[in-house]
Amino acid sequence: MQICSKCITPATWPGITFDTDGVCSLCRAFERRFGAVLKDPEWGKRACERLDRILEWAKRKKGGAYDVLVPVSGGKDSLNVLYELCVEKKMSVLAYTYDNGLMSEQALRNLETATRALGVSHVMVRHAFQLDLVRHFLKKTGNICGACFVPMVFSAYEVARRFGIEQT
């Protein structure tokens, strides 16, 4: 099975294509959008320094059992962040997923596997009205992103508050 030479996403990913260098269409789209930023040699250093300051603040401001709330979708990027914060940064993490009703079985399996392997508590929030909201957004705007983004962000704040996780 072919996998991306940069991000290891497999050919089984819906709609993915590969160029002659073996790089997937997802990586190429990312490069087109963020290429200029990524070419700045100081950008990565500045971003890491800022993240380290935020994480140190989170450890000091701990108001409950967890240092941070980490939104996870079940995809490789969010699960990598979860791993980095748990294992590399030694943070006390609460994983959070907003189930928009459209999650794949693979994403759900990935979430279960990763949270179990890392010993991380995981909160999944579902709203009964979500699919109605998706239909409404699709009908009115042709775009469903707002139907998920707004409740996802508000739910994240509610979960953080409920578990005593300080917010910047």
Q: Would you mind describing this structure in some detail?
A:
There is one protein chain. 54% of the residues lie in helices and 10% in strands. It is built from 6 helices and 3 strands, in the order H-H-E-H-E-H-E-H-H. It has helices spanning 25-39, 43-60, 76-88, 105-118, 130-141, 145-162; strands spanning 68-71, 93-99, 121-126. A 3-stranded parallel sheet has the order 1-2-3, sandwiched between helices. It starts with 24 loop residues before the first helix and ends in a 6-residue tail after the last helix.
Cα end-to-end separation: 43 Å
Annotation, overall tally of beta strands: 3
Summarize the biggest pleated sheet: 3 strands, parallel
The tally of helices reads 6
Supply Rg: 18 Å
Descriptors for this entry?
168 residues, mainly alpha, Rossmann fold, 2 domains, 3-stranded parallel beta sheet, 54% helix
